[in-house]
Amino acid sequence: MGVVIPLEESKNKLASIKPLVDLTKADMERVNQLILSKAGSDVQMIPEVAEHLISSGGKRLRPMLTIASAALYNYQGDNHIKLATSVEFLHTATLLHDDVVDESDLRRGRSTARMIWGNQASVLVGDFLLGQAFRMMVEVGSLDALDVLSSAACVIAEGEVLQLSVSKNMETTEDDYLSVIRAKTAALFAAAAEVGPIVANAGKAERNALKSYGTNLGLAFQLVDDALDYGGKAADLGKNVGDDFREGKITLPVILAYRRGTEKERAFWRDAIETGNNSDENLEKALGLITKYGALADTIARAVHYGTIARDALAPLPETPWKSALLEVIDFCIERVN
Fold first, then answer.
1. Looking only at Cα atoms, what is the longest distance across the chain?
2. Which reaction does this enzyme catalyse, per its entry (predicted)?
3. 10 pLDDT exceeds 70?
4. If we measure between CA atoms, which residue out of 311, 230, 240, 251 comes closest to residue 7?
5. What is the average pLDDT across 272-278?
6. Is the pTM for the entire model greater than 0.90?
């Protein structure tokens, strides 16, 4: 499909998270050790389920943002390790819960925890990880950091419920969709970036800059993810292409194709999404309509817009390797094929 070309071309571009990975390597090794320690339990199933997801090849971008944002302000100490681990546990718990809600079979190319241990174990282990995350936040002793991360946890849960309320509803607007991804994805990116300057005792302006960076990076990240569900490959996505379609998720490519279509085409979308008529044949038709109306290219264009806002948020900061690495993450998130 023609609109997939920009996604495929990204393989030849230079944007990478390697500079960030290299800069955070030593601290992320400490984070990984703490993850394994805090995921431990005398209840055997807890570490088994947690390890299944934790070891499944995620980039750990969110905790790296915490490490980097603290380093931007020359933080010296250990509390950023606990906060970064808390961020990763919040993320992991959300994934465990998401897979149950979405009835997902694959996560990062592997069977989801719910497919192996069942829905109940996935939810309860997610709850355990949330508890451990909050214990580490308390150990840090920063009420501001605790406020930011606990607020993010509430917003993420609200986003999940909001997504349920708009699921399979073709009258969902782009604003509704943005509200969902702002809560479900951008909130944790924002919190991960903001707690770095908090623990480094930076000022309000510095906190706001990193919060804006994280928010808009998260929006760009999710927009590209949603485009990839219709324009990527299963091997790249770690899930089946079209899973969002099969689950009746209302994402921006669908919203745009529906709004721009004829009445007959809108009737197709209502039948496919709202009544669950999501056969492979209908998926192919959906892909054709998304291509016809340029919905993928426009979704990516919106991601570029938010990426630009994220870039501008860091503009006042001094030029350092940390800043350069965070800027490159923006391009990586937009250009990437997972």
1. 62
2. 5 isopentenyl diphosphate + (2E,6E)-farnesyl diphosphate = all-trans-octaprenyl diphosphate + 5 diphosphate
3. no
4. 230
5. 93
6. yes
Specify the amino acid at residue 158.
E
Q: Could you tell me the two tokens for 329? A: 């993450």
**Side chain identity, residue 182:** R
**Mean pLDDT, residues 217-227:** 96
The pLDDT assigned to 337 comes to 44
Nearest by Cα to 179 from 162, 194, 192, 164 = 162
Q: Which CATH class is domain 2-335?
A: mainly alpha
